[in-house]
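REQUEST ID: PR-0412
SUBMITTED BY: lab tech R.K.
PRIORITY: routine
TASK: structure prediction, single protein chain
INPUT:
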Amino acid sequence: MVDAKEEEQPRNLTEEQKDEIANAVAYGALKMGMLDKDNNKVITFVWEQALNPESQSATYVQYSHARATRVLEKAPPELLPRPGDQYDFKNPEVHETNLLELIARLPEEVARAAEAYKPVIIATYSFEIADAFNNFYHNCPILKAGSEEKIRARLALTAAAKQTISNALGLLGIKAPDMM
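STATUS: complete
OUTPUT:
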């Protein structure tokens, strides 16, 4: 059996913090391993797959949340989104548009999952939003976006993605750690 504490090794953390993150990752892996399948299918659970941060796993989604948190922590405080701010995505890049569209889909996905009694819909959505955020992160510079207006807009999009990932995981009963 793989130990989640060995898989995720954060630095500069207390043992208590490391244990808390390891527990969140391990429980997330177990829960997602059950919820990301249709509820009338046989489940084969493989620890290595469940803890792989580069596969369709809770760890991947949790890591995406932690990545968004880290970007927001590194941002100058005066550029962080504030309630009531509005952002104009002039000529948005495809990765920005994809992420915005997925964020907007959360209420629809929740309704679909509730109507069908299928948490797999939210599990699949959580992978999609994490993937869209990671594509955005890798293809659209956030803190080095050029203009202050573009940096602000991308930080707002990062904050929205972080919140959406947290909400999706929360619906599944999975914690979204701020660091991993």
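NOTES: Residues 1-10 have pLDDT under 50 and may be disordered.
REVIEWED BY: pending
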